[in-house]
Amino acid sequence: MELWFTENHSENVRFSVRIDKPLYSEQSPYQRIDVFETPEFGRMLTLDGYVMITQKDEFIYHDMIVHVPMAVKKNVEKVLVIGAGDGGTIRELCRYGSVKHIDLVEIDGAVIRVCREFFPEMTASLDDERVTVNIEDGLRFVRHKKNEYDLIIVDSTDPFGPGEGLFTREFYGNCYNALTDDGVLVNQHESAFYENDAKAMCRAHERLRSVFEVHRVYQAHIPTYASGHWLFGFASKGLDPIKDLDAEYWESLGIKTRYYNTELHRGCFALPNYVIERLGGGKEQ
Amino acid sequence: MELWFTENHSENVRFSVRIDKPLYSEQSPYQRIDVFETPEFGRMLTLDGYVMITQKDEFIYHDMIVHVPMAVKKNVEKVLVIGAGDGGTIRELCRYGSVKHIDLVEIDGAVIRVCREFFPEMTASLDDERVTVNIEDGLRFVRHKKNEYDLIIVDSTDPFGPGEGLFTREFYGNCYNALTDDGVLVNQHESAFYENDAKAMCRAHERLRSVFEVHRVYQAHIPTYASGHWLFGFASKGLDPIKDLDAEYWESLGIKTRYYNTELHRGCFALPNYVIERLGGGKEQ
Fold first, then answer.
1. Residue A155 a catalytic site member
2. Residue B196 lies in a domain
3. ipTM field
4. Claim to verify: residue B27 and residue B147 sit in the same structural domain
5. What is the DSSP string of chain B?
6. What are phi and psi of B192, to 5 degrees?
7. Per-residue pLDDT tens for A61-97?
8. Which of A60, A140, B27, B243 is surrounded by the fewest CB atoms within 10 Å?
9. Rounded distance between C-alpha atoms, residue B37 and residue B54, angstroms
């Protein structure tokens, strides 16, 4: 028997992964959660039929959403992570000695439960004593926070379903208020190649730009995401992701990574012209 | 009726593209050639079932295989292009006023004939008076050339079938001899993510490194190639792709591009750690 999982990257493009064995399936109040064993990618988590995480390439996403801001904003102590029930972002954050407290806010407790069972290497840090797991709506959680976090990471699903509120202007405005003066917000920022992804990218960019003084977009090669070219947003009240990068500081921490390095940090902000144009032109996005 | 083209990116991963209409199919003496009309990518050329070119993203490949070397080796006059029967590489080269002569060497005349019919916007420059089209084996063509070309572009298919000889040490050695002292060779260099591609990448790198004084690998996001993360090789007898980049010179040429820019030029050589490690470690690949 052959079993294949298929995700539509657009109406006209399909990405299919051979499945050794479906390991788990659940309809939570928020979304359908599936875990598969695959020969190419190891275990794979999908939410509502979209690939979220595979064991083979999750290091790329988690390196880029964590180490990029951490090499710019030094000595981060307090972090808010929204989404990220799979634990990968928390795992990377916990490698920093400076971090004293992490609030993880995940709307769907089932994601955490399932990932604890099937991805123990990703979720182990959820038990770190510095981490508080809050099962609630990130939109609501951040609403009344003021000047509290050095770093906010929005590790959301796509901007429909449970992730939708995490792409609104109201949410970004509340994040702005929740950040310290030299705080940084990073978010998953969709993609530029397929039309629906590109529209979501533009909307996120417009809104973040209207709220934050600095907003830049950076890229990574993530093979299991649509087009393989995935984007992240870097927003701050003043810190610049290139000028304020302290490569020497970051390298002195001795954090070993499989994707990120400080040369690549500089490189990942150099976007292709068609992406710059789509984002609204100019070298300053 | 639904019609889908499928390419296996590995034994366990498939990439499928919806077809509006198959436009052409031919078994040449060298390979199977197909052209499809697709709603997502426009027209698409496949050779032996592998996507070579689509109208939607061919600009990425052609920008990166041409403008990267042209911004380092200035005032290129004589160019040898091996493969590239689709004409896209020649089109980009012909935008440079310095170029006086281009030898295109394509083993399979049928590819040129088919592309002239179905991709006229790519093949138009094949009629440029500076271009000589040679229908022959690139391996043989380059064998007795000495100190003749400022730039050699190896725009090959994958290292099996007709493209196989273009990944051998003998071929790279002959290219070395065919280049002027400050000449540059650029080639399509496979990919790092799926195992078979990664093996081909390593072999090409090992061989180029054993022949050329300088060999560096750079990357682009090409959505229709396996993993979306595609690599190119830059080899020379001394010119360095970063230190010898002359951004001001290149920008003064006024060549408008949709992917390449000189910031991205610097960025594209900043590889992820796992690629550096796979290539044999160290910052100097």
1. yes
2. yes
3. 0.95
4. no
5. ---EEEEEEETTEEEEEE-SEEEEEEE-SS-EEEEEEETTTEEEEEETTEEEEETTTHHHHHHHHHHHHHTTSTT--EEEEEE-TTSHHHHHHTT-TT--EEEEEES-HHHHHHHHHH-HHHHGGGGSTTEEEEES-HHHHTTT--S-EEEEEEE---SSGGGGGGGSHHHHHHHHHHEEEEEEEEEE---SSSHHHHHHHHHHHHHHHHH-SEEEEEEEE-TTSGGGEEEEEEEESS--TTTT--HHHHHHTT---SS--HHHHHHHT---HHHHHHHTSSS--
6. -105, -10
7. 999 999 999 999 999 999 999 998 999 999 999 999 9
8. B243
9. 10
Cβ of residue B269 closer than 8 Å to a chain A Cβ: yes
- Residue A136, domain member (yes or no): yes
Q: How many CB atoms lie within 10 A of CB B242?
A: 13
Instruction: Tell me the percentage of chain A whose pLDDT exceeds 70.
Output: 98
A230 touches chain B (CB under 8 A): no
The catalytic residue positions of B are 155
Taking only the tens place, the pLDDT of each residue in A163-198 is 788 888 999 999 999 999 999 999 999 999 999 999
pLDDT in tens, B63-110: 999 999 999 999 999 999 999 899 999 999 999 999 999 999 999 999
Q: Are residues B66 and B182 in the same domain?
A: yes
**What radius of gyration do chain B's Cα atoms show?**
18
Q: Name the residue range of residue A45's domain.
A: 4-54
The encoded tokens of residue B231 equal 């690599």
d(CA B45, CA B34): 6
Distance CA B24, CA B9 (A): 23
Does residue B284 sit within a domain?
no
Q: Do A103 and A206 belong together in one domain?
A: yes
The verdict on a CB contact (< 8 Å) between A229 and B228 is: yes
Q: Are B136 and B144 in contact (CB under 8 A)?
A: no
- One domain for residues B116 and B235: yes
Supply the pTM of this predicted model. 0.95
Sequence-distant (6+) residues with CB within 8 A of A120 are none
A34, A108, A155, A197: the active-site residue: A155
- Nearest CB among A17, A39, A266 relative to B270 is that of A266
Low-confidence ranges of chain B (pLDDT < 70): 281-285
Q: Which residues of A touch B18 (CB under 8 A)?
A: 11-13
A194, A221, A270 ranked by CB distance to B267: nearest: A270
Give how many domains chain A has, as a whole number. 2
In eight-state DSSP terms, residue A246 is -
Report CB contact under 8 Å: A18, B11: yes
